[in-house]
Amino acid sequence: MRDSGAFDEFYRATSARMVRYGYAMTGDLGDAQDVVQEAYARAWRHWRSVAGHPAPEAWVRLTVNRLATDRWRALGRWRAALIRTGPPEVAAPPGETSVLLATALRKLPMHLRQAIVLHYLYDMSTTDIAAETGSPIGTVTSWLRRGRLELAAILNPSGPYAGKTLLEANDVD
Question: Is 134 left (phi over 0), alpha (psi -120 to 50) or beta?
Fold first, then answer.
């Protein structure tokens, strides 16, 4: 069994220095925190051999160095791909309809919003939605109907569903 107390003590004694080292190696605090976290995770997985190493901090520092180098190499490959293909096209801003729909969706309760989005944007069947949400199919069907009615009332406040309850909306249909 690994000695978690010894690892915790080692981590507390070395982690601040290691983040500074990682920052110096990567030039970015977020990247530094990522590589240091990964280095300590690897040290924990191999703690018996790391603890027995003559310089455990050097072992972690070497791991941070290798992980930082891997990130630089990945950036180099990304840069080369951009040079070959050019930058991606700038995405057009969302249209008025998209903004109105997103605003209306935010007004729905989360379970109705989830059902509507999965069904209409991800083309999932009610059976698939039921499986993903852990709900009965009849409940998902009800959520979709209620979601559609509430969206209709939100998007068209002067329409036939505005201000109607679910029972009253059934009379309009």
Answer: left
Which pTM value belongs to this model? 0.50
CATH number of the domain that residue 13 is part of: 1.10.1740.10
Q: Do 47 and 109 belong together in one domain? A: no
One-letter amino acid at 105 equals L
Q: Can you give the residue range of the structural domain that contains 18?
A: 4-85
pLDDT tens for 49-63 read 999 999 999 999 999
Burial class of 117 by CB neighbour count within 10 A (0 to 12, 13 to 18, 19+): middle
- Apex CA 84: angle with CA 35 and CA 65, to 5°? 15
The pLDDT of residue 118 is above 80: yes
The per-residue pLDDT for range 58-86, each reduced to its tens digit, is 999 999 999 999 988 888 888 888 889 88
Of 65, 85, 105, the residue at which a domain comes to its end is: 85
CA–CA gap between residue 129 and residue 137 (Å, rounded): 8
Q: Is 92 helix (H, G, I), strand (E, B) or coil?
A: coil
Q: Are residues 101 and 78 in the same domain?
A: no
